[in-house]
């Protein structure tokens, strides 16, 4: 088995004894920030922050994403000299059409595509008019689609939520969460990078807490009570502390998303991390993926960040 693992580490598409597909992290070694991943019709589609454009990478395996086919769907016409213009892209299918939601100049934007993630994207427009970044789409069971994003309230970078009128516009915006706990306020108070998670009969919104340029940038969550109006802050319970924090040489392990394995039986966490022990908000952040486990009470167990280079079994159904 040891010899097999060594050979696997040297192979682009490695397999363990028995033929099970495997992969190693990181999936992206540069420009791996703010990762989003979805599996559709035989392909993984990955988006990360490149700062000046929006790119989609696709491959049939996680390991294959390292050298996967790449497609640029949007480029800034007049980027700023520092290049920090476009970030946190996400792919979401609403009413049969794929859309890419992203942040540009600290506002929320959306591009409209077609019936497949690999199509053309046009009709670039603002989702709403106020300051807002890191937008995501959360489908709350029995209630519909909601747009969740990082907003500014009481001079704090918080989380807000709004009902979606359609794929490109939202209704009134409500406050969802503010960084009031000590572990949300390291260097700068921050709530950002929301990511919906559904399992069993429960719905969470994971989010990133504290400043990204610290090793304490980490993942926490809000749990919906399952009954009350999702627009009401009282309908959500914040976790007692972070669920996922720096470990194993990976720091600032946050701004994540959750994706489902090809056969639909597993939920996986995709996130970014840096090897800079001081933390980082820049292009040196890398993309990692690992399986989500579940506690006896049905809550997510994100575990601890895996070591770079460790060989892992790929999502079920590859």
Describe the fold and architecture.
With 318 residues, the chain is mainly beta. The chain has one domain: Tachylectin-2, Chain A. It is 3% helix and 49% strand. It has one helix and 23 strands. It has a four-stranded antiparallel β-sheet with strand order 2-3-4-5, with no helix packed on it. Strands 6-7-8-9 form a four-stranded antiparallel β-sheet, with no helix packed on it. It has a four-stranded antiparallel β-sheet with strand order 10-11-12-13, with no helix packed on it. A hairpin with a 2-residue loop joins strand 2 and strand 3. It is globular and about 45 Å long. The protein starts with a helix and ends in a 5-residue tail after the last strand. Pfam families: Glyco_hydro_43 (PF04616). One of its GO terms (molecular function) is hydrolase activity, hydrolyzing O-glycosyl compounds. It comes from Immersiella caudata. One of its GO terms (biological process) is carbohydrate metabolic process. Belongs to the glycosyl hydrolase 43 family.
Question: Which helices and strands appear, and what pairs or packs with what?
Answer:
Layout: H1 2-9, E1 22-24, E2 33-40, E3 43-49, E4 53-59, E5 69-75, E6 86-94, E7 97-104, E8 107-112, E9 122-126, E10 133-140, E11 144-153, E12 156-166, E13 169-177, E14 191-199, E15 202-209, E16 218-224, E17 236-238, E18 251-260, E19 267-274, E20 286-291, E21 293-294, E22 300-301, E23 311-313
Antiparallel strand pairs: 1-23, 2-3, 3-4, 4-5, 6-7, 7-8, 8-9, 10-11, 11-12, 12-13, 14-15, 15-16, 16-17, 18-19, 19-20, 21-22
